[in-house]
């Protein structure tokens, strides 16, 4: 992670310029000591964009257009940040799809278990003779009683 002064050196600009572009072209975060840190990958992208002429850090504001080059550059920067956001969104959609599939499978299994419980319940009612019930193993009998209670 880079500090403001390290970013300024990489850009060949002042720390004040780095402060002006925070939140516009670069997104720093504060570490535990309160020092602003920058992702080196983001800084390298910005350096490359500047080298290609896609981004100019500062241009005098002119009265006729009322906009600075910095603002125009910020729009470009947000577009490459948008790529990362789109990738994250796609990953979350895949996770959501997988979760939906798991829910559907669990609901199907639940329906199958309820159907099984209903069949067992009917079997228990049909086997009304106490002698037939006593012939069943104790654990099977307890399971049948539990299923009847759940149904």
Task: Give descriptors for this structure.
single chain; 151 residues; mainly alpha; Multidrug-efflux Transporter Regulator, Chain: A, Domain 2; two-stranded antiparallel sheet; 2 strands; rod-shaped
Question: Overview of this structure, please?
Answer:
The structure is a single chain. This protein has 6 helices and 2 strands. With 151 residues, it is mostly helical. The chain has a single domain, classed as Multidrug-efflux Transporter Regulator, Chain: A, Domain 2, CATH 1.10.1660. The protein has a two-stranded antiparallel sheet. A hairpin with a 5-residue loop joins β1 and β2. It is rod-shaped and about 95 Å long. The two termini are 60 Å apart. 9% of the residues are buried.
**Helix share of residues?**
55-70%
Highest-level CATH class:
Mainly Alpha
Query: Uncertain regions: pLDDT < 50 for 5+ in a row?
Result: 59-69
Shape designation? rod-shaped
SSE sequence, one letter per element = HHEEHHHH
Number of helices: 6
CATH topology (level 3) name: Multidrug-efflux Transporter Regulator, Chain: A, Domain 2
The total tally of domains equals 1
Tell me the radius of gyration. 33 Å
Structural class: mainly alpha
Distance between the termini: 60 Å
- Largest beta-sheet details: 2 strands, antiparallel
